[in-house]
Write a structure and sequence with these properties.
Layout: E1 6-10, H1 15-26, E2 30-35, E3 45-48, H2 54-68, E4 73-76, H3 86-105, E5 119-123, H4 137-156, E6 163-169, H5 178-183, H6 185-194, H7 203-213, E7 225-228, H8 237-245
Parallel strand pairs: 1-2, 1-4, 2-3, 4-5, 5-6, 6-7
Helix pairs in contact: 1-7, 2-3, 3-4
The chain binds NADP nicotinamide-adenine-dinucleotide phosphate (NAP).
Length: 251
């Protein structure tokens, strides 16, 4: 019988990460999930860990590989959601934890033959190049560094048969945000209006892009970034201001 593919999802307990976990469970993978709470999804191995605690992270990774075997895919969706200093938190949880995990697991992926299928995906943000006033400077710095980290590892880990890419979501309507957008329908309508593809992103949109990068169809793609935002970040802010002041629909 063909051995099952092992996919480890860091930050897969809620939000977009939970949909990513569901995507790989549906695809029949063995799925390991890291987060501070346990994963509520059936059939996955949850590892409760704070990513700021290096020793605990290394122990959780060893447990995940022991339980589900060598890896084929590794996906990062975590971001800092803690108390205290946001700069230190973002750097530890988003950036340093990603480096520690990639370097610890790089030698623990499945060996050659199908090596080109091995995939690491780092979920980024448009705040890696644009300024999102509602996010901290640490979030911007960590997301910008993650993009370059992906490019670095794409080159240095290629001899091990590992591909490393980024997926960058726009504004995503995740389950946890539904109530907010129901109560603020005007904002939801505005996003629909200003997004070229006419809607907000869904967790499934992001999971599908990640799934593609972890599929044979992406076997020759590495060091790249796929922006999944319905075209919103293509627009010049000046045109947006014009459109909001003089809507085209008004003639
Ligand atoms: N939502 C959006 O609209 C949007 C837009 C652009 C980019 N993104 C990016 O997409 C990714 C997912 O976003 P999201 O909105 O789905 O995030 P989220 O709902 O806040 O989920 C973050 C995940 O990270 C885990 N996590 C956070 N701190 C942790 C820690 N110290 N140790 C272990 N796990 C930790 C959380 O698990 P626990 O709570 O169990 O610890 C959770 O599973 C992020 O990288 C974010 O920057 C999101």
């Amino acid at each position: 019988m063909k051995p099952k593919v092992h996919t480890l999802v860091v930050g897969g307990t809620r939000g977009i990460g939970r949909e990513v976990v569901r995507h790989f469970v549906r695809a029949g993978h063995r799925v390991s999930v890291l987060g501070r709470r346990t994963s509520s999804e059936a059939g996955v191995s949850g590892h409760v860990v704070d990513l700021a605690d290096k020793d605990a992270v290394l122990a959780a990774l060893a447990e995940a590989v022991k339980h589900n075997g060598r890896l084929t895919n590794l996906v990062f969706l975590q971001r800092f959601r803690g108390e205290g200093d946001a700069w230190q938190g973002e750097l530890e949880v988003s950036l340093t934890a990603t480096k520690i995990i990639i370097e610890e697991l790089a030698g623990k992926f499945v060996r050659p033959k199908k090596a080109a299928l091995n995939s690491i995906v780092i979920v980024g943000s448009n705040a890696s190049r644009l300024i999102a006033g509602e996010q901290s400077v640490g979030y911007h710095a960590a997301k910008a560094a993650l993009r370059q980290m992906a490019r670095y590892y794409a080159c240095s880990l290629a001899p091990l048969g590992l591909r490393v890419n980024c997926v960058t979501p726009g504004i995503v309507l995740k389950d946890e945000a539904r109530k907010f957008y129901r109560e603020n329908e005007a904002l939801h309508a505005l996003y629909r209006r200003v997004t070229p593809l006419g809607r907000m992103g869904s967790p499934r949109d992001i999971a599908d892009a990640i799934g593609f990068l972890c599929s044979p169809g992406a076997a020759f793609i590495t060091g790249q970034e796929i922006i999944v935002d319905g075209g919103l970040s293509l627009l010049w802010q000046g045109s947006l201001a014009n459109e909001l002041t003089f809507p085209k629909s008004a003639g």
